[in-house]
Amino acid sequence: MSEARGATEKLQAELHGLGVTSAYEVGDDETISVWIGLVVRYRDGFYRWQEGPVKRRHLGTDPVGCAMRVARRYKELQTDVPLWWDDLDRELRGAPVQDYP
To answer: Taking a C-beta distance cutoff of 8 angstroms, is the pair 56, 68 a contact?
Structure first.
């Protein structure tokens, strides 16, 4: 198992424990998609997470701390959806079909 894969598995387990059950690894062993526009990558010993234009990083040796920060931001985003989210959602999902998102 690669270092990146081990780190992402630990982070995903911690996120799941904090109630973020929709997060998934995208297939490259280093990227977890938490929500549309909220992504965490493990590289060079750091978790690097991005939501929209904002970028953050957290030590790769602390998946618990990183999961807490990401889960907190995830909940904030769901409570108060930023303006850029609608544009990104529309771009990724396409136009609604018969009023279904």
So the answer is: no
